[in-house]
Design brief:
This protein is mainly alpha-helical and 176 residues long. It contains seven helices and no strands.
Length: 176
């Protein structure tokens, strides 16, 4: 076996040979492509869509485990993904104009309604589904409020209730 054949054989294990007509992206190009895509699609669009797709998949699972089979379970999942995705995009679009409490309430209401409806697909009663949705909506409200209050500096509309130490910088000096 000549040296070139041995070198080519050793190189070919686990890699794509471009001399055989196959092409592959250079590893340095892939992160650049992902960064360019992330620059083009803002988080207020990508995150609600990803969450809606995950919720749609969970709805298919929940409907199937609740006794709904086949295409009907997929239709429930598709409807859940479209509706929650559209509502999530609306909330994410208008969140910069909302007060912190209103924004947390919007996320809590969307989450509570979606989870309560999904809970009902398992055959539970309307009362237990409403209670489950209200409970998890309240948990989402408190969690969102905690997160939004903890990151006030990064809020698009700024701090609407500055702390005492910040207030002294914003008020004019008293005249005596």
């Amino acid at each position: 076996m000549d040296q070139h054949a041995h070198h080519r054989a050793a190189r070919s294990h686990g890699s794509v040979e471009t001399e055989h007509g196959a092409t592959r992206a250079r590893p340095a190009e892939q992160p650049a492509r992902l960064a360019a895509l992330a620059d083009r699609v803002p988080a207020t669009v990508s995150l609600p869509i990803i969450a809606a797709l995950a919720f749609g998949c969970f709805t298919i699972f929940r409907a199937h485990s609740g006794g709904i089979k086949g295409g009907q379970a997929v239709l429930y999942g598709l409807a859940a993904a479209v509706v929650t995705g559209a509502l999530g995009l609306v909330v994410a679009h208008f969140q910069s104009s909302m007060l912190t409490e209103t924004r947390a309430l919007a996320y809590g209401a969307l989450f509570g309604c979606a989870v309560g409806w999904n809970y009902s697909l398992g055959g539970e009663s309307v009362l237990s589904s409403v209670g489950f949705g209200l409970g998890l909506g309240a948990v989402m409200f408190v969690t969102a409020l905690y997160i939004f209050r903890g990151h006030r500096v990064r809020e698009p509309h700024g701090e609407h209730r500055p702390h005492k130490e910040h207030r002294s910088r914003h008020l004019p000096a008293p005249t005596h």
